[in-house]
Write a structure and sequence with these properties.
The protein is 84% helix and 0% strand. By secondary structure, it is mainly alpha-helical. It has two domains: 408 residues, no CATH class; 66 residues, no CATH class. Helix 2 packs across helix 11. The longest helix has 53 residues. It starts with a helix and ends with a helix.
Length: 478
Amino acid sequence: MKKSVGRNAILNVVRQVSTIVFSVISFPYISRVIQPDNYGKISFSTTFVSYFSLIAAMGISNYAIREGAKIRDDKGRLNKFVNEIFTINIISTIFAYFLLLITLFLWWQGLKIYFLLIFIQSLLIFVTTIGVEWVYGIYEDYYYITVRNVVVQLISIVLIFLLIRSRNDYIMYAVILLVASGGGYIFNFVHVSKYVTLKIVKKINLRKHLKPILFLFASSLLISIYVSSDITLLGVFGTNKEVGVYTVSVKIYTIMKQFLNAVVAVILPSASHLIGNKLFKKYNILLDNILQTIIFFAIPLTALLIVNSKNIILLISGTDYLSGVMALRILSLATVPSLIASFFVTTVLLPYNKEEKIFIITIASAIFNVLLNLFMIPIWGINGAAFTTFMAETLVAFFSVIYSRRLITIKLVSLSTLQVITGSFIVGFICYVTNLFNLYYLYSLILSSTISICVYLIIMKILRNSVFHAILKKIKGE
Protein backbone atom coordinates (compact mmCIF):
# COMPACT_ATOMS: atom_id res chain seq x y z
CA MET A 1 0.00 0.00 0.00
CA LYS A 2 1.98 2.94 -1.27
CA LYS A 3 1.07 6.32 0.11
CA SER A 4 2.16 9.75 -1.14
CA VAL A 5 3.74 11.85 1.59
CA GLY A 6 2.98 14.98 -0.46
CA ARG A 7 -0.72 14.07 -0.83
CA ASN A 8 -0.96 13.19 2.86
CA ALA A 9 0.75 16.45 3.82
CA ILE A 10 -1.71 18.45 1.72
CA LEU A 11 -4.68 16.59 3.24
CA ASN A 12 -3.33 17.14 6.74
CA VAL A 13 -2.82 20.84 6.00
CA VAL A 14 -6.45 20.99 4.83
CA ARG A 15 -7.49 19.30 8.08
CA GLN A 16 -5.51 21.78 10.13
CA VAL A 17 -6.89 24.67 8.08
CA SER A 18 -10.45 23.50 8.81
CA THR A 19 -9.60 23.53 12.52
CA ILE A 20 -8.05 26.98 12.15
CA VAL A 21 -11.09 28.26 10.25
CA PHE A 22 -13.28 26.89 13.05
CA SER A 23 -11.21 28.87 15.57
CA VAL A 24 -11.01 32.03 13.45
CA ILE A 25 -14.78 32.05 12.86
CA SER A 26 -15.91 31.00 16.32
CA PHE A 27 -13.27 32.40 18.65
CA PRO A 28 -13.82 36.14 18.06
CA TYR A 29 -17.52 35.60 18.77
CA ILE A 30 -16.96 33.34 21.79
CA SER A 31 -14.28 35.48 23.44
CA ARG A 32 -16.53 38.53 23.26
CA VAL A 33 -19.74 36.80 24.37
CA ILE A 34 -18.58 34.71 27.33
CA GLN A 35 -15.95 37.28 28.48
CA PRO A 36 -12.40 36.69 29.79
CA ASP A 37 -13.36 35.37 33.25
CA ASN A 38 -15.62 32.59 31.94
CA TYR A 39 -13.19 31.82 29.15
CA GLY A 40 -10.54 31.51 31.85
CA LYS A 41 -12.69 28.91 33.66
CA ILE A 42 -12.94 26.84 30.50
CA SER A 43 -9.18 27.14 29.91
CA PHE A 44 -8.34 26.09 33.46
CA SER A 45 -10.66 23.06 33.42
CA THR A 46 -9.43 22.05 29.95
CA THR A 47 -5.84 22.15 31.18
CA PHE A 48 -6.78 20.20 34.31
CA VAL A 49 -8.50 17.42 32.33
CA SER A 50 -5.63 17.32 29.80
CA TYR A 51 -3.33 15.74 32.39
CA PHE A 52 -5.69 12.78 32.80
CA SER A 53 -6.14 12.58 29.04
CA LEU A 54 -2.39 12.08 28.80
CA ILE A 55 -2.54 9.26 31.33
CA ALA A 56 -5.22 7.56 29.25
CA ALA A 57 -3.32 8.11 25.99
CA MET A 58 0.02 6.97 27.50
CA GLY A 59 2.00 7.73 24.33
CA ILE A 60 0.25 4.83 22.62
CA SER A 61 -0.51 6.71 19.40
CA ASN A 62 3.07 7.32 18.24
CA TYR A 63 4.17 3.84 19.24
CA ALA A 64 1.20 2.21 17.49
CA ILE A 65 1.73 4.19 14.27
CA ARG A 66 5.46 3.50 14.23
CA GLU A 67 5.16 -0.25 14.82
CA GLY A 68 1.90 -0.75 12.94
CA ALA A 69 3.26 0.91 9.79
CA LYS A 70 5.92 -1.81 9.60
CA ILE A 71 3.36 -4.67 9.47
CA ARG A 72 0.29 -3.07 7.89
CA ASP A 73 0.50 -5.32 4.83
CA ASP A 74 0.09 -8.40 7.05
CA LYS A 75 -3.57 -8.15 8.08
CA GLY A 76 -3.42 -10.98 10.62
CA ARG A 77 -0.41 -9.64 12.50
CA LEU A 78 -1.74 -6.09 12.36
CA ASN A 79 -5.18 -7.10 13.70
CA LYS A 80 -3.53 -8.87 16.65
CA PHE A 81 -1.25 -5.87 17.28
CA VAL A 82 -4.12 -3.34 17.11
CA ASN A 83 -6.28 -5.28 19.58
CA GLU A 84 -3.41 -5.63 22.05
CA ILE A 85 -2.77 -1.88 21.91
CA PHE A 86 -6.50 -1.12 22.13
CA THR A 87 -6.79 -3.27 25.26
CA ILE A 88 -3.83 -1.51 26.88
CA ASN A 89 -5.49 1.83 26.02
CA ILE A 90 -8.78 0.74 27.66
CA ILE A 91 -6.92 -0.21 30.86
CA SER A 92 -5.04 3.11 30.91
CA THR A 93 -8.31 4.99 30.37
CA ILE A 94 -9.97 3.29 33.36
CA PHE A 95 -6.91 4.14 35.45
CA ALA A 96 -7.05 7.79 34.30
CA TYR A 97 -10.69 8.13 35.38
CA PHE A 98 -9.84 6.55 38.74
CA LEU A 99 -7.11 9.15 39.32
CA LEU A 100 -9.46 11.94 38.20
CA LEU A 101 -12.06 10.91 40.80
CA ILE A 102 -9.45 10.76 43.57
CA THR A 103 -8.12 14.21 42.63
CA LEU A 104 -11.62 15.70 42.67
CA PHE A 105 -12.25 14.16 46.07
CA LEU A 106 -9.00 15.44 47.59
CA TRP A 107 -9.23 19.00 46.19
CA TRP A 108 -13.00 19.36 46.12
CA GLN A 109 -13.07 22.81 47.76
CA GLY A 110 -10.85 24.34 45.10
CA LEU A 111 -12.29 22.42 42.14
CA LYS A 112 -16.03 22.31 42.87
CA ILE A 113 -16.73 25.50 40.89
CA TYR A 114 -15.21 23.76 37.85
CA PHE A 115 -16.90 20.38 38.43
CA LEU A 116 -19.48 20.56 35.63
CA LEU A 117 -16.88 21.78 33.13
CA ILE A 118 -14.47 19.04 34.21
CA PHE A 119 -17.18 16.39 33.87
CA ILE A 120 -18.10 17.52 30.35
CA GLN A 121 -14.52 17.78 29.15
CA SER A 122 -13.53 14.46 30.73
CA LEU A 123 -15.90 12.64 28.35
CA LEU A 124 -13.35 13.37 25.63
CA ILE A 125 -10.98 10.89 27.32
CA PHE A 126 -13.35 7.99 26.64
CA VAL A 127 -14.29 8.91 23.07
CA THR A 128 -10.64 9.47 22.20
CA THR A 129 -9.79 5.96 23.36
CA ILE A 130 -12.54 4.22 21.40
CA GLY A 131 -11.80 6.46 18.39
CA VAL A 132 -8.44 4.69 17.76
CA GLU A 133 -7.17 7.55 15.59
CA TRP A 134 -3.81 5.81 15.39
CA VAL A 135 -5.28 3.03 13.22
CA TYR A 136 -5.92 5.61 10.51
CA GLY A 137 -2.38 6.88 11.00
CA ILE A 138 -1.01 3.38 10.41
CA TYR A 139 -2.88 3.15 7.12
CA GLU A 140 -2.22 6.85 6.33
CA ASP A 141 -5.93 7.31 5.63
CA TYR A 142 -5.76 11.10 5.75
CA TYR A 143 -8.58 11.50 3.23
CA TYR A 144 -11.14 10.03 5.64
CA ILE A 145 -9.68 11.92 8.61
CA THR A 146 -9.81 15.21 6.70
CA VAL A 147 -13.40 14.80 5.46
CA ARG A 148 -14.56 13.71 8.91
CA ASN A 149 -12.86 16.65 10.58
CA VAL A 150 -14.34 19.22 8.18
CA VAL A 151 -17.88 17.84 8.71
CA VAL A 152 -17.59 17.88 12.52
CA GLN A 153 -16.12 21.40 12.54
CA LEU A 154 -18.96 22.70 10.35
CA ILE A 155 -21.55 21.20 12.70
CA SER A 156 -19.79 22.76 15.70
CA ILE A 157 -19.69 26.24 14.13
CA VAL A 158 -23.43 26.10 13.45
CA LEU A 159 -24.09 25.02 17.04
CA ILE A 160 -22.00 27.88 18.43
CA PHE A 161 -23.93 30.59 16.61
CA LEU A 162 -27.27 28.96 17.38
CA LEU A 163 -26.74 28.22 21.07
CA ILE A 164 -24.17 30.67 22.52
CA ARG A 165 -25.96 33.94 23.23
CA SER A 166 -24.67 35.31 26.55
CA ARG A 167 -21.74 35.09 28.97
CA ASN A 168 -23.66 32.46 30.96
CA ASP A 169 -23.63 30.04 28.02
CA TYR A 170 -20.05 29.00 28.67
CA ILE A 171 -21.22 25.54 29.85
CA MET A 172 -22.93 25.00 26.50
CA TYR A 173 -19.74 26.15 24.79
CA ALA A 174 -17.85 23.42 26.66
CA VAL A 175 -20.36 20.87 25.31
CA ILE A 176 -19.85 22.15 21.77
CA LEU A 177 -16.07 21.93 22.22
CA LEU A 178 -16.61 18.30 23.19
CA VAL A 179 -18.51 17.77 19.93
CA ALA A 180 -15.81 19.57 17.92
CA SER A 181 -12.96 17.60 19.48
CA GLY A 182 -14.60 14.24 20.11
CA GLY A 183 -17.39 13.93 17.57
CA GLY A 184 -15.04 12.58 14.93
CA TYR A 185 -13.92 9.76 17.21
CA ILE A 186 -17.45 8.34 17.26
CA PHE A 187 -17.29 8.15 13.45
CA ASN A 188 -13.89 6.46 13.81
CA PHE A 189 -15.26 3.72 16.05
CA VAL A 190 -17.94 2.84 13.49
CA HIS A 191 -15.66 3.18 10.46
CA VAL A 192 -12.62 1.28 11.82
CA SER A 193 -14.11 -2.10 10.82
CA LYS A 194 -12.87 -1.27 7.31
CA TYR A 195 -9.34 -2.05 8.54
CA VAL A 196 -9.54 -4.23 11.67
CA THR A 197 -11.95 -6.13 13.90
CA LEU A 198 -11.65 -4.17 17.12
CA LYS A 199 -12.02 -6.04 20.42
CA ILE A 200 -10.58 -6.35 23.92
CA VAL A 201 -8.22 -9.33 24.25
CA LYS A 202 -6.96 -11.29 27.26
CA LYS A 203 -3.45 -12.07 26.02
CA ILE A 204 -1.15 -9.08 25.62
CA ASN A 205 2.58 -9.09 24.89
CA LEU A 206 3.36 -6.57 27.64
CA ARG A 207 7.10 -7.28 27.55
CA LYS A 208 7.24 -6.05 23.97
CA HIS A 209 4.86 -3.07 24.23
CA LEU A 210 5.17 -1.70 27.74
CA LYS A 211 8.70 -0.26 27.83
CA PRO A 212 8.47 1.93 24.69
CA ILE A 213 4.90 2.95 25.57
CA LEU A 214 5.90 4.02 29.08
CA PHE A 215 8.86 6.01 27.80
CA LEU A 216 6.63 7.80 25.27
CA PHE A 217 3.96 8.30 27.94
CA ALA A 218 6.46 9.86 30.34
CA SER A 219 7.67 12.12 27.56
CA SER A 220 4.10 13.15 26.65
CA LEU A 221 3.31 13.88 30.30
CA LEU A 222 6.42 15.99 30.70
CA ILE A 223 5.69 17.86 27.46
CA SER A 224 2.23 18.62 28.81
CA ILE A 225 3.78 19.95 31.99
CA TYR A 226 6.01 22.44 30.21
CA VAL A 227 3.25 23.37 27.75
CA SER A 228 0.44 23.68 30.30
CA SER A 229 2.20 24.66 33.51
CA ASP A 230 2.06 28.33 32.53
CA ILE A 231 -1.75 28.34 32.41
CA THR A 232 -2.00 26.22 35.56
CA LEU A 233 0.33 28.49 37.53
CA LEU A 234 -1.37 31.61 36.18
CA GLY A 235 -4.57 30.15 37.60
CA VAL A 236 -2.81 29.76 40.96
CA PHE A 237 -0.95 33.09 41.12
CA GLY A 238 -3.24 35.24 38.96
CA THR A 239 -6.91 35.73 38.10
CA ASN A 240 -9.36 34.07 35.72
CA LYS A 241 -9.13 37.17 33.54
CA GLU A 242 -5.34 36.85 33.24
CA VAL A 243 -5.74 33.18 32.32
CA GLY A 244 -8.34 34.13 29.71
CA VAL A 245 -6.16 36.87 28.20
CA TYR A 246 -3.09 34.66 28.12
CA THR A 247 -5.06 31.75 26.64
CA VAL A 248 -5.98 33.94 23.67
CA SER A 249 -2.29 34.55 22.95
CA VAL A 250 -1.51 30.86 23.40
CA LYS A 251 -4.40 29.90 21.11
CA ILE A 252 -3.18 32.17 18.29
CA TYR A 253 0.37 30.84 18.69
CA THR A 254 -0.88 27.24 18.78
CA ILE A 255 -3.01 27.69 15.66
CA MET A 256 0.00 28.83 13.65
CA LYS A 257 2.18 26.07 15.10
CA GLN A 258 -0.40 23.37 14.28
CA PHE A 259 -0.78 24.67 10.74
CA LEU A 260 2.97 24.58 10.10
CA ASN A 261 3.36 21.25 11.90
CA ALA A 262 0.78 19.54 9.69
CA VAL A 263 3.47 18.37 7.28
CA VAL A 264 5.61 16.87 10.05
CA ALA A 265 2.69 14.90 11.49
CA VAL A 266 2.29 12.68 8.40
CA ILE A 267 5.95 11.65 8.08
CA LEU A 268 6.19 9.14 10.95
CA PRO A 269 4.69 6.12 9.11
CA SER A 270 6.73 6.80 5.95
CA ALA A 271 9.94 7.42 7.93
CA SER A 272 9.43 4.22 9.95
CA HIS A 273 8.79 2.27 6.75
CA LEU A 274 11.94 3.61 5.04
CA ILE A 275 14.17 2.96 8.05
CA GLY A 276 12.67 -0.50 8.56
CA ASN A 277 13.55 -1.36 4.95
CA LYS A 278 17.02 0.27 5.21
CA LEU A 279 16.22 2.84 2.51
CA PHE A 280 18.40 5.46 4.19
CA LYS A 281 19.15 7.54 1.10
CA LYS A 282 15.45 8.06 0.35
CA TYR A 283 14.86 8.73 4.03
CA ASN A 284 17.45 11.52 4.18
CA ILE A 285 16.16 13.10 0.96
CA LEU A 286 12.62 13.06 2.36
CA LEU A 287 13.76 14.69 5.62
CA ASP A 288 15.80 17.37 3.90
CA ASN A 289 12.91 18.36 1.61
CA ILE A 290 10.42 18.51 4.48
CA LEU A 291 12.74 20.48 6.79
CA GLN A 292 13.56 23.11 4.17
CA THR A 293 9.86 23.46 3.32
CA ILE A 294 8.97 24.01 6.99
CA ILE A 295 11.68 26.67 7.34
CA PHE A 296 10.52 28.34 4.10
CA PHE A 297 7.06 28.99 5.58
CA ALA A 298 7.75 29.17 9.32
CA ILE A 299 10.25 32.02 9.58
CA PRO A 300 8.38 34.64 7.48
CA LEU A 301 5.06 33.77 9.13
CA THR A 302 6.72 34.19 12.53
CA ALA A 303 7.97 37.65 11.51
CA LEU A 304 4.48 38.56 10.29
CA LEU A 305 2.89 37.36 13.55
CA ILE A 306 5.35 39.25 15.77
CA VAL A 307 4.86 42.62 14.07
CA ASN A 308 1.08 42.23 13.63
CA SER A 309 0.32 40.82 17.10
CA LYS A 310 -1.83 43.78 18.15
CA ASN A 311 -3.96 43.72 15.00
CA ILE A 312 -4.38 39.94 15.20
CA ILE A 313 -5.59 40.07 18.81
CA LEU A 314 -8.00 42.90 17.93
CA LEU A 315 -9.35 40.80 15.06
CA ILE A 316 -9.62 37.56 17.02
CA SER A 317 -10.86 38.70 20.41
CA GLY A 318 -11.22 42.49 20.73
CA THR A 319 -9.86 45.21 23.00
CA ASP A 320 -10.47 43.27 26.25
CA TYR A 321 -7.50 41.04 25.39
CA LEU A 322 -4.95 43.66 24.29
CA SER A 323 -2.89 43.15 27.44
CA GLY A 324 -1.78 39.89 25.80
CA VAL A 325 0.00 41.55 22.85
CA MET A 326 3.52 41.29 24.29
CA ALA A 327 2.88 37.71 25.41
CA LEU A 328 1.88 36.81 21.85
CA ARG A 329 5.05 38.43 20.46
CA ILE A 330 7.20 36.42 22.86
CA LEU A 331 5.30 33.21 22.09
CA SER A 332 5.72 33.86 18.37
CA LEU A 333 9.49 33.63 18.84
CA ALA A 334 8.95 30.06 20.07
CA THR A 335 7.37 28.95 16.77
CA VAL A 336 10.57 28.09 14.90
CA PRO A 337 12.34 26.19 17.73
CA SER A 338 9.07 24.36 18.47
CA LEU A 339 8.77 23.20 14.86
CA ILE A 340 12.42 22.17 14.70
CA ALA A 341 11.99 20.13 17.90
CA SER A 342 8.84 18.50 16.56
CA PHE A 343 10.55 17.68 13.28
CA PHE A 344 13.57 15.92 14.76
CA VAL A 345 11.59 14.07 17.42
CA THR A 346 8.89 12.86 15.00
CA THR A 347 11.01 12.07 11.95
CA VAL A 348 14.32 10.97 13.50
CA LEU A 349 14.23 9.98 17.17
CA LEU A 350 10.86 8.18 17.07
CA PRO A 351 11.48 6.10 13.91
CA TYR A 352 14.92 5.14 15.26
CA ASN A 353 13.32 3.92 18.55
CA LYS A 354 15.13 6.55 20.64
CA GLU A 355 12.40 6.80 23.31
CA GLU A 356 15.02 7.13 26.06
CA LYS A 357 16.54 10.19 24.36
CA ILE A 358 13.11 11.78 23.96
CA PHE A 359 12.47 11.15 27.66
CA ILE A 360 15.76 12.79 28.68
CA ILE A 361 14.99 15.85 26.53
CA THR A 362 11.48 16.29 27.88
CA ILE A 363 12.30 15.75 31.56
CA ALA A 364 15.07 18.35 31.41
CA SER A 365 12.78 20.83 29.63
CA ALA A 366 9.83 20.20 31.96
CA ILE A 367 11.88 20.77 35.11
CA PHE A 368 13.46 23.88 33.59
CA ASN A 369 10.06 25.24 32.51
CA VAL A 370 8.25 24.69 35.81
CA LEU A 371 11.08 26.22 37.86
CA LEU A 372 11.28 29.23 35.55
CA ASN A 373 7.49 29.64 35.64
CA LEU A 374 7.51 29.62 39.46
CA PHE A 375 10.05 32.44 39.38
CA MET A 376 8.75 34.55 36.48
CA ILE A 377 4.94 34.37 36.66
CA PRO A 378 4.62 36.02 40.10
CA ILE A 379 6.86 38.87 38.85
CA TRP A 380 5.98 39.36 35.17
CA GLY A 381 2.62 37.57 34.90
CA ILE A 382 1.57 36.51 31.41
CA ASN A 383 4.74 37.89 29.79
CA GLY A 384 6.84 35.78 32.14
CA ALA A 385 4.74 32.73 31.25
CA ALA A 386 5.30 33.37 27.54
CA PHE A 387 9.04 33.77 27.99
CA THR A 388 9.35 30.45 29.84
CA THR A 389 7.52 28.72 26.96
CA PHE A 390 10.00 30.21 24.47
CA MET A 391 12.96 29.08 26.57
CA ALA A 392 11.56 25.56 27.00
CA GLU A 393 10.89 25.15 23.27
CA THR A 394 14.41 26.37 22.48
CA LEU A 395 15.91 23.88 24.93
CA VAL A 396 13.95 20.99 23.40
CA ALA A 397 15.01 22.02 19.89
CA PHE A 398 18.68 22.21 20.90
CA PHE A 399 18.81 18.72 22.43
CA SER A 400 16.68 17.21 19.64
CA VAL A 401 19.22 18.39 17.08
CA ILE A 402 22.17 17.19 19.20
CA TYR A 403 20.73 13.68 19.57
CA SER A 404 19.67 13.47 15.90
CA ARG A 405 22.81 14.66 14.16
CA ARG A 406 24.56 11.24 14.18
CA LEU A 407 21.54 9.49 12.69
CA ILE A 408 21.01 11.66 9.60
CA THR A 409 23.06 13.51 6.99
CA ILE A 410 20.88 16.59 6.44
CA LYS A 411 21.95 20.13 7.39
CA LEU A 412 19.83 22.44 9.54
CA VAL A 413 21.34 25.63 8.09
CA SER A 414 21.63 25.82 4.30
CA LEU A 415 21.72 28.48 1.58
CA SER A 416 17.93 28.23 1.38
CA THR A 417 17.67 28.94 5.12
CA LEU A 418 19.82 32.07 4.85
CA GLN A 419 17.70 33.30 1.92
CA VAL A 420 14.54 32.73 3.96
CA ILE A 421 15.92 34.65 6.95
CA THR A 422 16.79 37.59 4.66
CA GLY A 423 13.30 37.62 3.16
CA SER A 424 11.71 37.35 6.60
CA PHE A 425 13.45 40.49 7.86
CA ILE A 426 11.95 42.32 4.89
CA VAL A 427 8.50 40.87 5.74
CA GLY A 428 8.78 42.26 9.26
CA PHE A 429 9.97 45.65 8.03
CA ILE A 430 7.07 45.99 5.55
CA CYS A 431 4.54 45.09 8.26
CA TYR A 432 6.12 47.60 10.66
CA VAL A 433 6.01 50.44 8.13
CA THR A 434 2.40 49.65 7.18
CA ASN A 435 1.33 49.79 10.83
CA LEU A 436 2.80 53.31 11.15
CA PHE A 437 -0.07 54.64 9.02
CA ASN A 438 -2.55 53.79 11.83
CA LEU A 439 -5.14 52.31 9.51
CA TYR A 440 -8.16 50.38 10.79
CA TYR A 441 -6.67 47.16 12.22
CA LEU A 442 -8.34 44.84 9.69
CA TYR A 443 -7.20 46.95 6.72
CA SER A 444 -3.70 47.24 8.15
CA LEU A 445 -3.48 43.48 8.70
CA ILE A 446 -4.69 42.62 5.20
CA LEU A 447 -2.51 45.25 3.51
CA SER A 448 0.70 44.45 5.38
CA SER A 449 0.25 40.69 5.01
CA THR A 450 -0.52 40.88 1.29
CA ILE A 451 2.36 43.21 0.42
CA SER A 452 4.93 41.42 2.59
CA ILE A 453 4.03 37.94 1.31
CA CYS A 454 4.19 39.09 -2.31
CA VAL A 455 7.56 40.77 -1.75
CA TYR A 456 8.84 37.68 0.06
CA LEU A 457 7.92 35.42 -2.87
CA ILE A 458 9.53 37.83 -5.34
CA ILE A 459 12.73 37.83 -3.28
CA MET A 460 12.73 34.02 -3.19
CA LYS A 461 12.36 33.96 -6.97
CA ILE A 462 15.17 36.48 -7.49
CA LEU A 463 17.45 34.54 -5.13
CA ARG A 464 16.48 31.31 -6.92
CA ASN A 465 15.46 29.67 -3.65
CA SER A 466 15.37 25.88 -4.10
CA VAL A 467 12.16 25.34 -2.10
CA PHE A 468 10.34 28.08 -3.99
CA HIS A 469 11.29 26.60 -7.35
CA ALA A 470 10.38 23.07 -6.20
CA ILE A 471 6.92 24.33 -5.22
CA LEU A 472 6.54 26.06 -8.59
CA LYS A 473 7.39 22.80 -10.36
CA LYS A 474 4.77 20.95 -8.31
CA ILE A 475 2.15 23.55 -9.21
CA LYS A 476 3.05 23.31 -12.91
CA GLY A 477 3.01 19.51 -12.71
CA GLU A 478 6.62 19.15 -13.84
